[in-house]
Amino acid sequence: MSADHTADVVILGGGLVGMTLAIALARAGIASVVVDSSDPATQTAQGFDGRASAISTASWNLYTNLGMAEALAARGCPIAAIAVTDGMKPGRIDFRPKPDEGSLGVMFANRDLRLVMYETAARESLITFLPKAEVAARDRGPHGVTVTLADGRVLTARLLVAAEGRRSPTRDDAGFAPARWSYQHRAIIAGLYHARPHDNVAWEIFYPAGPFALLPLRDEADGRHRSALVWTVAEADAAGVLALPDAAFTGEVARRMGDLFGAITLASARTSYPLDFHHTVKVVDHRLVLVGDAAHGMHPIAGQGLNLGLRDVAALAEVLGEALLLGLDIGDAQMLKRYERWRALDSFMVAGATDVLTRLFGVPGRVPSALRRLGMAGVQRSPTLKRWFMDEARGMRGTLPALLQPGL
After folding, report:
1. What is the reported pTM?
2. pLDDT of 351-382, one tens digit each?
3. In the chain, what are the domains?
4. What 3-state DSSP class applies to 120?
């Protein structure tokens, strides 16, 4: 059977992690075929997805080094500070870097990230993008991989990358066994307009039912102030919250956020997704690599999911780029093990920390709340601890791949 497309790598999943990996590999001289079941026109349609992502300093360095920062800059909202509070009670933590240290990250609507990502990928001759395509079969042989699509097209490469997200069929078919559980919660996503400016502050308000996050977005062209809402509710309550009339929904939101931003109205339709956890220590197999949510899915409590996936991208691109320069097979087991070892500690620590935070702030009662606020007050008074947490949020700790460092 002849191949319709031959490349160095086949990437299954063309989302924010998979397509960014293709761009990073192209810059290293590695050709890829990206297969995705979705339609880019739908993914970038106005109002398709109200989700927003906090891009850390390390991830912004990646976008800069891949030539995407200039197009993104006008679309993002810098995060000047992060306020963390237990139910809007006294004793919050304020993370605010010094003026010469820059922001704590940049908030983007996911739609804007996709628009720039697709535009950048379209300029790369080493990327073949196959949207609206379904995978029928995956075969990994001793010398390469073959992917057969539902329409009969055949793709061949030396390495297969699973970037399909939390429910990766490639990961499951390969027999990976991640630790996983459901939080029995659902995240409700919506855009908000509000009367007063957010002053570039991201708010993380913890309630026993789950975190309630207000994430700053760039003002509209007409001057209206905007934020993204991520509201965690119990799975049993989600349908009722989603069914509320707009006025009742914004009333419930206002009750939880107090008078932070004045009067609020909806800026987008409401969407939701279930919250669960999965993590696999093993992220490579014979000519197969997992990246992003295919390897580690976590609670959005700290906004680290996409950033963790982008760190996977930078590490894998560096490992495969070095293999290419050395004339090695980029599907070589020893090279892939290097990627696995490099990413193991970071992914485990971030996944574990988000799970612990979720459970810690989910304990109801006045005594647990008082203890949490006491601990938060201690962090607020400690510049050293605050510095450590801010560096973690920026993704600038540990041995970083070159693409995550400034001024590449």
Report:
1. 0.90
2. 666 665 665 555 556 655 555 665 655 556 66
3. 5-180+276-404 (3.50.50.60)
4. helix
